Amino acid sequence: MVGDNRRGTPGTGVSGGVYGLAFIGAAVYYIQHADTFWAGALGFLKALVWPALLVYKLLEFLKM
Length: 64
Fold this sequence. Notes:
By secondary structure, the protein is an all-alpha fold. The protein is 69% helix and 0% strand.
């Protein structure tokens, strides 16, 4: 068959699942600790970007 890609997209296996679980955990944590609706909404947005902030802080700590 033309265009039949049985291997899938490389790199979307375990790492995607780990990111998904980490996102859900972060969202639950931030929303549980929110006092208002808007704090919960901000917590949801923080849950989306916390891995990028973690890598940024790690690189800053390592002075790279």
